[in-house]
Write a structure and sequence with these properties.
218 residues, 6-stranded mixed β-sheet, disordered N terminus
């Protein structure tokens, strides 16, 4: 039996995409079980890829956290978008994050169009985030809307990263979409970022929240 279980171990890379502030970094932290990606109420908080690692008996998921894809207005925005595009070609699953408490808008549709153009063969998954903020009826309505946006072949999972609701379900769904293969990282490793980089990110998070007018964000 143990040999059979080994054969069924799945591993791969997943990228969370969506408009800025759709809960991607919070979800990354909830799945890893520790804070590795900074979160802020300001958009474009994530400046570079952070890989979080989720370990389970049957799978290992490497979470690639990217900046929110958006229509760039500045050179910084363009460079962040280029980073996102490069990431698309390197992952097994792209999970599109859309909050339960916001209607699907032109920005969401634009992102999905970009993904389907840039990575037509990559598995698409819908994630309805922040379900703790709305009623069950509103969650159901948003699940239908996201399903229509992504197409009938894409699974859609509702989650609340803050409350921890459905996080394990999401991990299982993503794992089921991964190819069979060995673990990429040793058990216990949660990120491949050096400690110095994580410390710098946490300091930047505190600065973004505490120093608003004094610190030009762009």
């Amino acid at each position: 039996m143990s040999g059979q279980n080994k054969d069924e171990f799945r591993s791969g890379f997943v990228c969370f995409v969506g408009r800025p502030n759709t809960g991607k970094s919070t979800l990354t932290n909830a799945m890893v079980g520790q804070k590795i990606a900074i979160t802020s109420s300001r958009p474009q908080t994530t400046r570079h890829t952070i890989r979080g690692i989720v370990h389970r008996e049957h799978a290992q998921l490497i979470l690639v956290d990217t900046p929110g894809l958006h229509r760039p207005r500045t050179l910084l925005g363009q460079r962040l978008n280029d980073l996102v595009r490069d990431t698309y070609s390197e992952v097994d699953v792209i999970a599109v994050c859309i909050p339960a408490d916001e209607k699907i808008g032109p920005g969401d549709r634009w992102i999905v169009e970009q993904i389907k153009t840039m990575a037509p063969k990559t598995t698409l998954l819908g994630v309805v985030t922040k379900i703790d903020k709305v009623s069950r009826d509103q969650v159901a309505h948003q699940l239908m809307a996201v399903s229509q946006l992504l197409g009938p072949e894409a699974e859609v999972v509702p989650v609340s990263a803050v409350k921890g609701e459905q996080v394990e379900v999401l991990i299982d769904v993503i794992a089921s979409q991964m190819p069979e293969g060995p673990a990429f990282y040793p058990d216990g490793e949660l990120t491949d970022e050096p400690e110095e980089v994580l410390m710098a990110e946490l300091i930047r998070e505190a600065a973004l929240e505490g120093v608003r007018d004094e610190l030009p964000h762009s």
